[in-house]
Write a structure and sequence with these properties.
The protein is an alpha/beta fold and 444 residues long. It contains 15 helices and 13 strands. The protein has two domains: 206 residues, P-loop containing nucleotide triphosphate hydrolases (Rossmann fold); 145 residues, P-loop containing nucleotide triphosphate hydrolases (Rossmann fold, 3-Layer(aba) Sandwich). It is 35% helix and 14% strand. It is globular, with a radius of gyration of 22 Å.
Length: 444
């Protein structure tokens, strides 16, 4: 199938052609025609399969068919995402594919001044992409009117629930018009996702293009057994000897990300860390420097497991395995995107053997293990409990309103309230109405 067969107008096809695309991905080929029919959709697809364009392209087409109205623009489309990075990625997709169309869009999230966002909304926009906390803040200040929304998209719904945004989502849903199109995209279809879909979607069309939690065939997965104390040495050696120029490295904690970035610098490898305690400007700069090649390594917590979209990223390294198996799938999904091949390497010490077993059970296959001469694990070292950096079994900063839709300050782990809420004396919105899974405290 070609994009030209999907009943998209010439201005959209022109923008697609500018990006060098001619054929839609499977999720795009299935989702676009259904969205164009105005139906509600519950869609699941692997990360990196182009699902953002799967809803962006048809929504732009539907907006183009609307009769032009006089006066200030009103918000017709609302897209909710769990993190700032993902919100920015979706906003960039809207601009890219809508560059030949007259619509105005804006991205809204915390960690930056709210005043420019209020000013932009005052002038009128057609499309709003944002994170729940800041969306609610603007609604409460009467700066954001959602009473005219015709298309509501919930992107990465599983991550939204995992971060505790369910109460915020429900508050936002209450102000939306009853008659609207709803699109829910999720990498997993848990019971919580299905419950949310039942209350949100109207006779939805279910779209799945791959088995849930299946990893991409484009990604080569390898485990290197190594003692914890020698991980950094092995990582630096691999980067230097293989002349890797762009590597995304995941750690479990914010402190661990900072420490590893500093150590790599001492090894002569340019790097930067990105996590929830970093300011938004620092996060934006680190990601930009990584994309344009100013630094070789971006060390990240799971804040970056979704929201980083680099087509040519060849290497992802799990310096530490995630304690939640599903996060492994999203981490390695940062490589092998847009039809490119990639390599996902995991440095696994004896403490992480249980994590590895859980990951292999989730993806339903064994990950090949390769031992490197000079780095063979010491069999006398016994497994020890892993310090999650803030308490086992607790949600990390960023759950609910506390993360202000993507984190960015130390207050995220203290009571779950944003700075604006503290000033107003408000409490946090609370936890989701389900039994939470254990989370490491680095969550943003």
């Amino acid at each position: 199938m070609k994009f030209t067969e999907l009943k998209l107008r010439d201005n959209i096809l022109r923008a697609i052609k500018d990006q060098g695309y001619t054929e839609p991905t499977p999720i795009q080929a299935k989702a676009i025609p259904i969205v164009l029919e105005g139906k509600d959709v519950l869609a699941g697809a692997q990360t990196g399969t182009g699902k953002t364009a799967g809803f962006t392209l048809p929504i732009l087409e539907l907006l183009s068919k609307k009769p032009k109205t006089q006066g200030k623009r009103k918000v017709s489309v609302l897209v909710l995402t769990p993190t700032r990075e993902l919100a920015a990625q979706v906003a960039e997709s809207v601009k890219t594919y809508g560059k030949y169309l007259p619509f105005k869009s804006t991205v809204i999230f915390g960690g930056v001044s709210i005043n420019p966002q209020i000013h932009t909304l005052k002038n009128g926009v057609d499309i709003v992409i944002g994170t729940p906390g800041r969306i609610l803040d603007l609604m409460n200040q009467r700066a954001l009117d959602l009473s005219n929304v015709e298309h509501f998209i919930l992107d990465e719904a599983d991550r939204m629930l995992d971060m505790g945004f369910i109460h915020d989502i429900k508050k936002i849903l209450k102000v939306l018009p009853q008659k609207r199109q709803n699109l829910l995209f999720s990498a997993t279809f848990s019971k919580e996702i299905k419950t949310l879909a039942d209350g949100l979607l109207n006779s939805p069309i279910l779209i799945e293009v791959a088995r849930t939690n299946e990893t991409s065939a484009q990604v080569e997965q390898i485990v290197y057994p190594v003692d914890k104390a020698r991980k950094r040495e092995l990582l630096s050696q691999m980067i230097s000897e293989n002349k890797w120029t762009q590597v995304l490295v995941f750690t479990r904690t914010k402190h661990g990300a900072n420490r590893l970035s500093e150590q790599l610098g001492k090894d002569g490898i340019t790097s930067a860390a990105i996590h929830g305690n970093k300011s938004q400007n620092a996060r934006t700069k680190a990601l930009a420097d990584f994309k344009n090649g100013k630094i070789r390594v971006l060390v990240a917590t799971d804040i970056a497991a979704r929201g980083i979209d680099i087509d040519q990223l060849a290497h992802v390294v799990n310096y530490e395995l995630p304690n939640i198996a599903e996060d492994y799938v999203h981490r390695i999904g940062r490589t092998g995107r847009a039809g490119n091949s990639g390599q996902a390497i995991s440095l696994v010490c004896v403490d992480e053997h249980e994590y590895l077993r859980n990951i292999e059970a989730l993806i339903r296959k064994r990950v090949p293990q390769v031992q490197i001469k000079g780095f063979l694990p010491d069999p006398s070292i016994k497994a020890e409990p892993i310090n999650q950096g803030g308490g086992r079994g607790k949600r990390g900063g960023g759950g609910g309103r506390g993360g202000n839709s993507g984190g960015g300050n130390r207050n995220n782990s203290r009571g779950g309230r944003s700075n604006d809420q503290r000033k107003r004396g408000e409490s946090a919105t609370g936890k989701p109405n389900r039994k939470p899974r254990p989370r490491a405290s680095h969550k943003d």
